Amino acid sequence: MKDKNTTREPLFHIVKRGDLPGYRAWIIRVLSVVAALIICALLTMFLTHQNPIEVYVTMIKGSFGSSRRFWMMLQNLAMLLCVSLAVTPAFKMKFWNIGAEGQVLIGGLATAACMIMLGGKIPNALLILVMIIASVVASAVWAVIPAIFKAKFNTNETLFTLMMNYVGIQIVSYFTIVWENPKGSGQIGIINQATHAGWFPKIGEFDYLLNVLIVFALTIVMYVYLKYSKHGYELTVVGESENTARYIGVNVKKVIIRTMLLSGAICGIAGLLLVGSTSYTISTNTAGGRGFTAIMVSWLAKFNPIYMILTAFLLAFLNRGANEIATVFGLDQAFSDILTGIILFFIIGSEFFINYQIKFHHSHKEVK
Fold it and tell me: ∠ CA(271), CA(276), CA(282), 5° rounding?
């Protein structure tokens, strides 16, 4: 006679989805944003008693309320996108470059050094050319150091690049004291404010149009490089499987070093634009956390430079909007950060439902 046992199965289990059509993935993302906005609205009413509709309108006005705000938002978008383009080749290769913050700072420092040491001594066109070369080379060298150690000694690139951020910050701090103006201020101040030596030219009346155009062109170049070039193919193969890459004849060490040189060079362009075409000074806050935010931009866009325009826009808009509502409603900056965090949490969480599905089932009796 067989015993009867009751087998209880879990209430649900998670399974990997197959390929989800693109439009369905975007529907999930849009629904996640709608859900986040509803949660934020309820939280706003409960904690601040403010009208959530007015809060959202204020966020929109913070980015599009005037011509100046619109161009500031475009500038923030362009700089964030530029750093995101820099980390994308390395991340696509599964080299976890967490050091973009320091690489941008080193590029900006090289730019500032050229402006301070050579400003007024050589023609401005030549000075700008020297600034471009110096910033790109300095950042590329800074980025390739952990790449060499990874390729030769298999060191942990995450910790290596992260620690180099702090080294870069301290180097900038040192030169801030060396070049401080006026003495004792603890800051460099506007470089070449009287002569504008080394300042990038403006296009018409738009302060940041040149930056936007440069980053847009860089986005197209990076898209073509990753999708259609031999180098882009090789770094993709290395990211999927180093053993496969070696089997088909790819020099993995060479690809790692070459890719990090590229990532560093683009970070140098970001530092160049931030110092030579935006703030005209250098400080430890010049990168503004973009090196870390760029990781989220790149990851959400699935390492696609075109999609990164949308994700960078979203984060730049949220940042500007959060600052605006904190100012208009007299709220603590932390509250605006909470709203931004909730929205980002839902957006990131939507990727789970794009890649996985939850299957529910009921317990049943199994006769053994």
Answer: 65
Q: How far apart are CA 172 and CA 286, in angstroms?
A: 10
Distance (Å, whole) CA 215 – CA 226? 16
d(CA 108, CA 284): 10
Cα(274)–Cα(261) distance, integer angstroms: 20
CA–CA separation, 318 vs 306, rounded Å? 20
Give the C-alpha separation, 51 to 301, whole Å: 32
Tokens of 316: 């730049």
Residue 49 has a CB neighbour count (10 Å cut-off) of 7
Q: Nearest CA to 264 among 150, 152, 349, 142?
A: 142
CB-based contact 195:119 (threshold 8 Å): yes
Q: What is the pLDDT along the chain (368 residues), one digit of tens a residue?
A: 445 555 566 676 777 777 777 778 878 888 888 888 888 888 888 877 878 888 788 888 888 888 888 999 999 999 999 999 999 999 999 999 999 999 999 999 999 999 999 999 999 999 999 999 999 999 999 999 999 999 999 999 999 999 999 999 999 999 999 999 888 778 899 999 999 999 999 887 888 999 999 999 999 999 999 999 999 999 999 999 999 999 999 999 999 999 999 999 999 999 999 999 999 999 999 999 999 999 989 988 889 999 999 999 988 888 888 778 778 877 776 777 787 788 888 888 888 888 887 777 654 444 34
Cβ atoms of residues 219 and 309 within 8 Å: yes
* DSSP annotation of 276: I
Residue among 17, 21, 18, 8 nearest 358 (CA): 17
How many Cβ atoms are within 10 Å of 341's Cβ, its own excluded? 15
Output the six-digit token pair for 80.
Answer: 């964030």
CA distance 119 to 276: 12
**Angle between helical axes of 209-228 and 252-274 (0-180°, round to 10):** 170
